[in-house]
Amino acid sequence: MRTLLFSLIITLSRLTVAAAPETVVYKKVEDRELKIFIERPAAWKATDQRPAIVFYFGGGCVGGTPEQFRKQSEYLATRGMVGIRVEYRTIPKGDKGPPVICCADAKSAMRYVRAHAKELGIDPKRIADSGGSAGGHLAAFTALVDGIDDSKDDLKFSCKPDALLLLDHLDLRGKLRTFVTTLRAHGARAHPDLVTACAPQAWKQS
């Protein structure tokens, strides 16, 4: 009985999250501080090399908050990952974009996470990107589109994730194609696979 109880306590300890998320400033833009919110497993140590997942909220690039993916981040922390939710700048409602500042912030956040992997207790080679709706577009952007980098970013740290988990982003027939096309006009260089996926003939095959 004691052995069973001890095993149960150990199991439950692995399925808990540290009491509150840590808030870290990853970037300053004029007088604004942009933050990441970090959920860690209760047993997390700074010497760990855990897998991590970075979340970008949805909202059409005109709204939303990092709270959108708090539950998902907390849950994955109970499974041993470090969950990271990103605050990024949005554009005004009615602004037709493109959302260049959103894209730049998404890349800055990813570079910050990779550059500070050691102190965050994560493996820099096991970082996933995720997001819903516009956040899904931003996650895909960090992985597949070159350019639109913040001039203050240290480009020696890659913004490309090691995996993608995209949620509610699949209005590809119009929105993603427009997203990529407009950003390319601003100097972005899309990965060939993404260009192919956004080509009109791809819609005819799907």
What does this structure look like?
The protein is built from 8 helices and 8 strands, in the order H-E-E-E-H-E-H-H-E-H-E-E-H-E-H-H. It is α/β, with parallel strands linked by helices. The chain is globular.
Descriptors:
alpha/beta; 8 helices; 8 strands
Offer a concise description of the structure.
The chain has 206 residues and is an alpha/beta fold. Helix content is 38%, strand content 23%.
Task: List strands and helices in order, with pairings.
Elements: H1 2-14, E1 22-29, E2 32-39, E3 50-56, H2 70-78, E4 82-86, H3 100-115, H4 117-120, E5 122-132, H5 134-144, E6 145-146, E7 163-167, H6 172-184, E8 189-190, H7 192-198, H8 200-205
Helix pairs in contact: 3-5, 6-7
Strand content: 15-25%
Please give the number of β-strands.
Answer: 8
Structural class of the secondary elements? alpha/beta
Q: What helical percentage do the residues reach?
A: 25-40%
Number of helices: 8
Largest sheet: 6 strands, mixed
Mean pLDDT: 81
The H/E string reads HEEEHEHHEHEEHEHH
